[in-house]
Amino acid sequence: MHLRSLLWACVAGALVAGCGREDKTTTDAASAPYVRTVALAPAAADRLVLSGIVRARFETPLAFQVGGRITSRRADAGQRVDAGQTLFELDPRDLQQGVEAARADVAAAESALATARADLARARQLFEQKFVSAQALDRSVLAEREAATRLEAARARLAQARNGLAYAQLRAPAAGVLTEVTGEPGQVVPAGQPVAVLAREGEREIEAYFPEQIRPPTSGRLLDAPGTLRLREVSGAVDPQSRTWRARYRVEGAQAPLALGAVLRVAFGTGEASDSSLSVPLSALDERGQGPRLWRIVNGQAQPVPVTILSMDTEQARVRGDFKPGDRVIALGTHLLTPGMAVRELAQ
């Protein structure tokens, strides 16, 4: 009897413990937070909307051809300038000294050439009178040629020094707008360092950046203004930092001039199959240093699924991943979720 009582006590304890665990599980499920879900829909793969920047067809970095200290700046960013207009000036004193030194070298070379020519004339007279040898005459001829060559070199250095003095003034090579000005009075700049960027007048283009998975299409259109786009050039490689393709498009059919630097919405046809990508609200995307993810509910638990972002606009994103149209994903609060977290789907 004692053994039978002990067995019945063990069975009763196990039943009570099992009921306790079931009550706890039921309590956890009942306290799980509600989440709102959204159904994934096929993306409009033939329409990719990006932001494009209005740029000039020719953008010229401006720099001095000689180094020196900037003494004055006569133009500001955003200012329209004419061809030949002076934009910056360098301190000309060192350059002027270079011109004076080159002029002195020319004078010395001219004197040396005059002396060599006089020596050659005397050597010829003496040679005709048989007082010097042919070898001595040859030396005088070579000396005169050397003096003439040195004079040519000195004159070339003088012309170079005068050019350098003229380079102390940086002038606009064409009419346009200064989109950027970095040079300041008192700044010492080496030759070739850009101090401004000139956007030349004339043709305007749209610059857009495409995800590395999408090659820039050959055409597109403006959404914020009338006009069509035609591809002019594409960068030779994907940018190593942003992982994007840079593309430039010519604008055709624009009814009004486009303001430099304006950001416009542009639409392109990607030519991809519509069943290869899905549309999802931006609020459903989660990226916390582990790549973009969407969260689905599996057996009452939130589980992350990695996806690839193809494009985004102000409200929706085109993604590709292990989903099919109609699958439901968590639409809000994804930054608070953890893998395996118990959740309850809010009734639709």
UniProtKB/TrEMBL annotation:
Cite the Multidrug resistance protein MdtA-like alpha-helical hairpin domain residue spans from the record: 101-168
Instruction: Write the record's keywords in alphabetical order, separated by commas.
Output: Coiled coil
Q: Which SUPFAM superfamilies match?
A: HlyD-like secretion proteins
Among Pfam families, the record links this protein to: BSH_RND, HH_MFP_RND
Q: Show where the Multidrug resistance protein MdtA-like barrel-sandwich hybrid domain sits.
A: 65-197
Q: What family name appears in the similarity comment?
A: Belongs to the membrane fusion protein (MFP) (TC 8.A.1) family.
Instruction: Specify the protein name.
Output: Efflux RND transporter periplasmic adaptor subunit
- What organism is listed for this UniProt entry? Thiobacter aerophilum
